[in-house]
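step=encode ok
step=design start
structure_in=
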């Protein structure tokens, strides 16, 4: 097995990746434009705005001081007693969606064995190559993941059943579909409603941290929200795939004679379900705490914005310790070590 670089050298690599992201975020970078075009060929949902959004959300993590503090807070030793090979099966619903998994493996001193989604196979290899990451830190798997000591896998409910069987004999974190919600009081400012719109429409609502359900007071006035979203996010209606979903879902609601509020490129409809189809946002008047507790117990809820929760506009900007499904990645990796507690 190739030796993993010491922490100081791993930090240099990740700092280099951060510098590459800075260059990528330069709107005048011709190289970035080429990479965006290649990524969009694999996934038409990955336009330049959404790719840049994902990279900009990750960039603050890639500073030596931030990463060292993360290790310290989680009580993870700088160097593992025994380096492990961690398989990572990545999703492709939004750009670089499983970057935190790889980052946790790298900073913890293990090797990431990555199986990319065909829908997001361009961006991560490009950033890794540009950062000069040593081969001992990362490998890319072919069709079938092999040679791993533990696994972090993200997929649909159907693929998760397969994961549960296939990875049953090794330590694992298995993730399935989740969605997010917002709690409103009816007293939100226009700035709040605009920020909430980002929580809803970023990545076209395809992320697990995308708000798909609004928990409302009984006297909620929809007009300020509708006016704000129509003004601030009308560009969403220019995406043909999003609008194909809108047309289809509108037809479904009409055939089912289910009432809805038409925003022109999105619809609001009453439902106690957390997850909603693309272009549809559910809302309910049920007591927020009851539904939130129900969704949490049934492992449906990823995060929540609004009163007593994350600030509006922050659902798509998680910190290093905002672990998906609330499963602590660093503890999982530390517990793989012999004699660790």
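sequence_out=
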């Amino acid at each position: 097995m190739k030796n993993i670089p010491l922490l100081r050298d791993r930090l240099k690599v990740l700092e280099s990746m951060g510098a590459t992201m800075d260059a990528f975020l330069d709107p005048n970078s011709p190289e970035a434009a080429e990479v965006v075009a290649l990524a969009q060929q694999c996934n038409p949902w990955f336009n330049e705005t959404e790719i840049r959004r994902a990279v900009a959300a990750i960039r603050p993590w890639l500073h030596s001081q931030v990463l060292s503090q993360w290790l310290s807070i989680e009580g993870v030793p700088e160097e593992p007693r025994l380096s492990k090979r961690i398989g990572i099966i990545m999703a492709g619903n939004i750009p670089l969606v499983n970057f935190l998994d790889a980052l946790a493996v790298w900073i913890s001193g293990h090797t990431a064995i990555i199986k990319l989604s065909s829908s997001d196979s361009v961006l991560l290899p490009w950033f890794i190559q540009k950062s000069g990451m040593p081969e001992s830190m990362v490998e890319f798997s072919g069709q079938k993941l092999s040679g791993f000591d533990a696994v972090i896998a993200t997929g649909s409910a159907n693929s998760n059943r397969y994961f549960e069987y296939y990875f049953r004999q090794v330590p694992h974190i298995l993730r399935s579909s989740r969605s997010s919600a917002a709690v409103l009081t009816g007293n939100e400012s226009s700035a709040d409603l605009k920020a909430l719109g980002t929580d809803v429409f970023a990545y076209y609502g395809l992320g697990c941290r995308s708000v798909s359900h609004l928990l409302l007071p009984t006297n909620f006035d929809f007009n300020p929200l509708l006016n704000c979203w129509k003004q601030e996010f009308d560009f969403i209606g220019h995406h043909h795939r999003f609008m194909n979903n809108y047309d289809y879902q509108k037809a479904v609601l009409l055939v089912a004679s289910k009432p809805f509020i038409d925003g022109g490129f999105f619809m609001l409809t009453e439902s106690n379900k957390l997850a909603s189809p693309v272009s549809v946002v559910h809302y309910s008047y049920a007591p927020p705490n009851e539904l939130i507790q129900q969704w949490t117990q049934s492992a449906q809820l990823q995060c929540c914005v609004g009163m007593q929760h994350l600030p509006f506009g922050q659902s798509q900007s998680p910190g290093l310790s905002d672990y998906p499904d609330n499963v602590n990645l660093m503890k999982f990796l530390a517990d793989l070590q012999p004699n660790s507690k």
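step=design ok
step=annotate ok -> The chain has a mean pLDDT of 95.
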